[in-house]
Amino acid sequence: MKLPQSLRLSAIALVLAAAPVAHSEPVMPETPADVQAAPADAVKTDSGLASKILTKGTGTVHPTATDKVTVHYSGWTTDGKLFDSSVKRGEPTTFGLNQVIKGWTEGVQLMVEGEKRRFWIPADLAYGENPGGGRPGGLLVFDIELISIKQAPKLEIPEDAVKSESGLASKVLTKGTGTTHPGAEDTAKLNITIWVDGEKVQSTADQGGPVDVPLDKLSLGGLSEGVQLMVAGEKRKFWIPAKLAFGGNPPPGAPANGLEVEAELISFKAGNPPPPTPPDVAAAPAGAEKTASGLASKVLAKGTGEKHPAASDTVTVHYSGWTTDGKLFDSSVKRGEPTSFPLTGVIKGWTEGVQLMVVGEKRRFWIPANLAYGENPGGGRPGGLLVFDIELIKIGE
């Protein structure tokens, strides 16, 4: 279900329009005279994207981020090197606008059919300064001609479906036997099946059966809301628009027309209240112990054990994690289930820190970004300094 996040230079020629498109013999595009930097008359957006119309279009409609477009394009680095060109290949290409680099997603939405435009795309809207993998770094220049737009299909929601203010639509397929609804912090045992454009893409039935899901951890927007409408034993169909499912900025490759989801609520159990935010979550206090790596910690409760785990050991712990603004991003305490893992399979700050502990001990850690997930890790992971309260329950399997 996941599609490429960026425009893949080696593969883009393979993603062709479904119908043949007439084209001329391949030609070598000329290097723009202004390839080194955007000229003074270029139009700039708030993101830093600069562009200039080379040929006015004949169309009147602009594509959206969820549409597919067919284009001809050529791309240069600022030293004038041509690194990719559909013009040179003699074949236009078709792609979803949410499947390419940010500068393309934003820029092509400014265009209409028949228009040709030059873009100066800064590194943070392209592949970065030093992307590796054969991709060009730094500011990139593209000439793009928008040939056609194929609008994304819409969800077909039946007339008897019930809609909420959020845009979620649902219909009861099988009435339940329960009388109470789960809350936002409860854990639900669910069977879930997901369809995209009528095609089944995921199903718990195909993956070993129902799953226990904390409703506040459901990454698919709208589904937590929907499950809270249900009672035990109920089966319900949901139609979730893309904006609700993935937020205002759908991730690259997100289904353009939203999702159809069928959920069966087998049972649910009340969630535990979240642990209180530490008063010293913003920074390690003066009395915290610090190691040479920059890891800081403070014993909250002394342990009963004498042995420290080794990096090669598996440990069982209860833990809660916060960002420095006090946001709880993960907690086994809240889930009511301790977790086990090998110390070699976690972030560096955990591998080092848990080895300082003994069974029964509870310790607070202030883990710098370089020992955690980095400053801007992406993928939903928290960045910067992280704070964890960890209780070591057991060493070994």
Characterization of the model:
The protein folds into 3 domains: 12-150, Chitinase A, domain 3 (Roll), CATH 3.10.50.40; 162-269, Chitinase A, domain 3, CATH 3.10.50; 289-395, Roll (Chitinase A, domain 3), CATH 3.10.50.40. It contains 6 helices and 21 strands. It is mainly β and 397 residues long. Strands 1, 2, 3, 4, 5, 6 and 7 form a 7-stranded antiparallel sheet that branches. Strands 8, 9, 10, 11, 12, 13 and 14 form a 7-stranded antiparallel sheet that branches. Strands 15, 16, 17, 18, 19, 20 and 21 form a 7-stranded antiparallel sheet that branches. The radius of gyration is 26 Å and the shape is flat.
Q: Span between N and C termini?
A: 35 Å
Please tell me the overall pLDDT.
89
Give the biggest beta sheet.
7 strands, antiparallel
CATH fold node name of the largest domain: Chitinase A, domain 3
Tell me the count of domains. Answer: 3
The total strand number stands at: 21
| Content of β-strand | 25-35%
CATH class of the largest domain: Alpha Beta
- H and E string: EEEEHEHEEEEEEEHEHEEEEEHEHEE
CATH-defined architecture of the largest domain: Roll
Percent helix range: under 10%
- Our count of helices gives 6
Any idea what the shape is?
Answer: flat
